[in-house]
Amino acid sequence: MASSFSKETGLIPHLFRSEYSKMTAVLCRLFGLKHIEIAEDIVSETFLKATEIWSINGLPENPTAWLYTVAKNKTKDNLKRNALFERVVSTEIKSEEIQNEESFIDFTKQIISDSQLAIIFAVCNPVNSNEGQICLALQNLCGFSLEEIANAFLSNKETI
Question: Cys staple from 68: which of 6, 107, 123, 124, with CB 3.0 to 4.6 Å?
Fold first, then answer.
């Protein structure tokens, strides 16, 4: 099966372009836009795991569903890890609230659409410069890498 993955090496970039922004938007809905880095990290880790696992075991029947499931599990692990940390550090943690937050992890079409709309409003905030809005939109909604955005702006990655 590993050989079938090597023939499908274009699948990961395709899925990254089509699903990264959806997954990030849903997780931003859960964590809040101020923690977009956490959402991006979880989604990036999900794609890294897909690359590792699929190269060994071959493609799953439904790669998109596999990505959503892994992202959901990684998010639950993140929430549990944060809860454990807060419980050890803080004596007053409300575990019921964290358990309720887990139920919001849902990759239905409606949730994806609503989450992406929220990202659009955040990106289009007039507080952000026009260039910043474009960069955020390209990265968070279109799945462009920093290098691709830098090339589009005829700039370097560090500047972007």
Answer: 107
42 class by beta-carbon count within 10 Å (0-12 exposed, 13-18 middle, 19+ buried): buried
Number of domains in the chain: 1
**Which tokens go with 69?**
């499931």
Pick from 151, 34, 154, 46: which is nearest to 107 by CA?
46
pLDDT on residue 101: 55
The encoded tokens of residue 8 equal: 């499908």
Range of the domain at 7: 2-105
DSSP string, the chain: -HHHHHHTTTHHHHHHHHHHHHHHHHHHHHH-GGGHHHHHHHHHHHHHHHHHHHHHH---SSHHHHHHHHHHHHHHHHHHHHHHHHHHH-S---HHHHHHHHTT----HHHHHHHHHHHHHHHT-TTS-HHHHHHHHHHHTT---HHHHHHHTTS-TTT-
Q: Which residues of the chain have pLDDT under 50?
A: 1-3, 6-7, 92-93, 95-96
Rounded CA-CA distance 122/120 in Å is 5
